[in-house]
Amino acid sequence: MQEGQVRPGNVLKVDCFLNHQLDVDLLDKVGEEFYRIFKDDGINKILTIEASGIAIACMTARHFNVPVVFAKKAKSKNIDGEVYTSTVHSYTYGRDYDITLSKKFLSPSDKVLILDDFLANGKAMKGLLDVCAQAGATVGGIGICIEKGFQPGGAELRAAGYKLASLAIVDTMTDDQLTFREQ
Amino acid sequence: MQEGQVRPGNVLKVDCFLNHQLDVDLLDKVGEEFYRIFKDDGINKILTIEASGIAIACMTARHFNVPVVFAKKAKSKNIDGEVYTSTVHSYTYGRDYDITLSKKFLSPSDKVLILDDFLANGKAMKGLLDVCAQAGATVGGIGICIEKGFQPGGAELRAAGYKLASLAIVDTMTDDQLTFREQ
To answer: In terms of DSSP bridges, do strands A68-71 and B21-22 run parallel, antiparallel, or are they unpaired?
Structure first.
């Protein structure tokens, strides 16, 4: 409420604490809260997507004492061998991109908590869910820092039966006001 | 020594703990060690570059109780206003790219610890140092997880007078052996 800034095109700018500069003390509290919500769900791995998700995933993984694995957005020559891939449309960057994840890091024995900073249309999340399906991994939960409640991603995931926890859900955004959903 | 794999083109693959899957317990120990080395250097901000650096930076920032800021590799429409930019050549990705950092997150009042997973030719580090110079920020130290001691980046930074700590320095790499420098 104090630091978020609304910009044209439904952009909510939170770069002073969540996705450019990182308030690590806040992220630790975010991690504590995800642990409180998902601690009984048998999570043995945290999955996220570069770049901003990595900070949230690491600060949460400390509480679960499980490894993090992050999907990559660009193909590097360092990724060799077999990979899962899925195509994602990014509204932020205005283009499609492929995400990749090495097959050795996700398998049917994994029960995954998927974490990300934002959920809006849910395109990146669908890519991560697709990767989990390809791996035969179970999705134990989805944790989001900020959901844009006026865009369809969250409602679709809840309708599909996922245990989705969004720490803040923004229902309306105007130039000078954010309204959060009561939870 | 146990998990690193040598690949053609001087690639040292450590993706099972450092830059694809993340061993968060190890990263916490990495953070403790950087804190031990740099705790008396007046650091008030940790600077890194997406993506792998973010995990190391967050797990280190906990010990310093300072914010992290990470340079971005792609221009997003979420970054507006004034930014510092610098051009970096990536050997891993085989191309040049621009890094950007919002001016509001780095200023002459900052004394920065720069962290990254790898140091080889030092091209990304030069980009980060250039950004610090543009900002008028002081570089209090540079912390690296794995330095390739047979490539020139580390020697150049030490010759330039930076306080550089590399937790592991690989002096030689062959298909079946890594030799680490005594420190």
So the answer is: antiparallel
In a domain, residue A163? The reply is yes
pLDDT digits (tens, 9 = 90+) for A122-169: 999 999 999 999 999 999 999 999 999 999 999 999 999 999 999 999
On whether residue B62 sits in a domain, the answer given is yes
**What ipTM goes with this model?**
0.92
Q: Which of B20, B73, B148 to mutate to test the interface with A (most CBs of A within 10 A)?
A: B20
Summarize pLDDT for B109-138 with one digit per residue, the tens: 999 999 999 999 999 999 999 999 999 999
Number of A/B CB contacts below 8 angstroms equals 128
Angle at the Cα of B78 from the Cα atoms of B74 and B81, rounded to 5 degrees: 95
For A52-104, the pLDDT digits (tens) are: 999 999 999 999 999 999 999 865 555 566 899 999 988 777 788 899 999 99
Domain for residue B93, yes or no?
no
Q: Which residues of A belong to the annotated binding site for xanthine? A: 12, 19, 148
Residue A79 belongs to domain with CATH number:
3.40.50.2020
Is B121 inside any structural domain?
yes
Q: Are A66 and B27 in contact (CB under 8 A)?
A: no
Q: Domain count for chain B, please give it.
A: 1
The beta-carbon neighbor of A24 closest among B21, B28, B61 is B61
A138: containing domain: 24-180
Distances (CA, A) of A128 to A74, A118, A121, A139: 15, 13, 14, 10
